[in-house]
Amino acid sequence: MVPQPSLSIIFLFPTTGQIQKERKEMYTNSVTNDKETVDDVYFLKQTIGNACGTIAIIHALANNLDSIDLGNFIEKTKDLDPYTKCKELENNHDFANIHNSTSQQGQTEPVEADSIIDFHFVAFTLKNGILLEMDGTFDHPISHGKCTSLIRGAADVIKKYMEIEPNSSQYSILSLGPPSSF
């Protein structure tokens, strides 16, 4: 059971040609340029190589500031366009130091920023009753339409991606929510 409420879902998936094609179609058909839909959305363009995990985490956290405190970075950049937000991130030494030190840790060998990676992270969040997929490689979030349950809505989208590559076991899902009690 996933502890509730879930504030955001982070999804890791293989970046096969077919999945990317389907996602680009969803993006193209997305209505998130509608001002009413994206008014309160914090969206950041990814310009840093192999930082999709960091960008997904920022999307997940920044779109839940009523529940999470991130200091002044979000407040300082909330009114900037997605590309300028990432330029601010690139120049933010605190984030850069954290990203560089943590990306060198873990159980796998770290990769260079310009390495070709076959996986990608995105974040799902609910804003104004709309399920949004936040992917910094696009210019705006992908709108998956009206939704009342983040977990159910994100699961439906994730299932569609997994149906494209049903033989792959290289998927991972993380829910940002309250600590679970054991």
Automatic annotation (TrEMBL):
Transmembrane segments: none
UCH catalytic domain residues: 1-178
Annotated positions for site Transition state stabilizer: Q46
GO CC, alphabetical: cytoplasm
Active site: C52, H120
Site (Important for enzyme activity): D135
Protein name: Ubiquitin carboxyl-terminal hydrolase
Hydrolase recorded as keyword: yes
Biological classification of the source: Eukaryota, Fungi, Fungi incertae sedis, Zoopagomycota, Kickxellomycotina
Domain of life assignment: Eukaryota
Reactions listed under catalytic activity: Thiol-dependent hydrolysis of ester, thioester, amide, peptide and isopeptide bonds formed by the C-terminal Gly of ubiquitin (a 76-residue protein attached to proteins as an intracellular targeting signal)
Pfam families: Peptidase_C12
Any one of the GO BP annotations: ubiquitin-dependent protein catabolic process
UniProtKB keywords: Hydrolase, Protease, Thiol protease, Ubl conjugation pathway
Family, as annotated: Belongs to the peptidase C12 family.
Gene Ontology MF annotations: cysteine-type deubiquitinase activity
E.C. number: 3.4.19.12
